[in-house]
Amino acid sequence: xxxxxxxxxxxxxxxxxxxxxxxxxxxxxxxxxxxxxxxxxxxxxxxxxxxxxxxxxxxxxxxxxxxxxxxxxxxxxxxxxxxxxxxxxxxxxxxxxxxxxxxxxxxxxxxxxxxxxxxxxxxxxxxxxxxxxxxxxxxxxxxxxxxxxxxxxxxxxxxxxxxxxxxxxxxxxxxxxxxxxxxxxxxxxxxxxxxxxxxxxxxxxxxxxxxxxxxxxxxxxxxxxxxxxxxxxxxxxxxxxxxxxxxxxxxxxxxxxxxxxxxxxxxxxxxxxxxxxxxxxxxxxxxxxxxxxxxxxxxxxxxxxxxxxxxxxxxxxxxxxxxxxxxxxxxxxxxxxxxxxxxxxxxxx
Length: 349
Hints:
Layout: H1 13-20, H2 38-44, E1 59-62, H3 95-100, H4 109-112, H5 115-123, E2 128-131, H6 138-144, H7 146-155, H8 157-181, E3 186-190, H9 203-209, H10 211-223, E4 227-231, H11 240-246, E5 250-252, H12 261-268, E6 273-278, H13 283-286, H14 289-303, E7 310-314, H15 324-348
Parallel strand pairs: 1-2, 2-3, 3-4, 4-5, 5-6, 6-7
Helix pairs in contact: 6-7, 8-10, 10-11, 14-15
């Protein structure tokens, strides 16, 4: 692995804003590009510190908006295991108590604990992202269990709306308090809406059960002048019109082999910015460094429009078994070709 690349400093906040808003940034920002899985950290340890030479162009300030084991629920819950294996509410009769015991964003200490980090980021002129994982699909499926939730859309629609309405009120409360205390530039969340070939639900189901609450969050973010970044794995192409209409600004990762990058960029690139994620399942693990660089150039050529509209990420957490020289090739090409591409775009304009 080469150590010849000099330290590249993070972009000023204004340049990341330009990229998101398609206003001619000087370089394509890297946001969650150095997304190390815990297993990768455990395997490589301090070797990963060598990649500190490459920038992270956004500061992430995350909370956990619902901690089930701290809610004081009257029934026994089990929070161990995978997301798909949990069921917090096994009977809708428990919904009233669950809603009543949701946390109060105004008194939650998590945001207070982020104030100093936010002030440091501001002093360094950094773009700040506030947020959390799991939104109006992943969190309800954790609360109800995935199989239950997918049936609930048909047999318990009123209860689904009550749960999503309560979550939406909670989410907007956290966003509004974070806006006052942290002054973030953007809001980040995750909702894996798709699988390998299509969304988990019909667009009509999304439109009925999720879009109204996505739109309420979008309205709150627009009022607060915050960009909205969404991580969503799988093929989300049929849902993009509704997501854009709800106010989404940035989509991650445009998953390889599930979405057609060229078609998506062509159809939606004038309305949506893409945090394009390099494929961590196959390309980053299995190709040689030249192949990784080739893929990075393809993504930049595809998504970087004349005004911008692109940031660069890993598609998900980078897993063990990924050659370090491939990570080097990914980051190096992202910076070098990302800078060159922007220079050429700006000259053409």
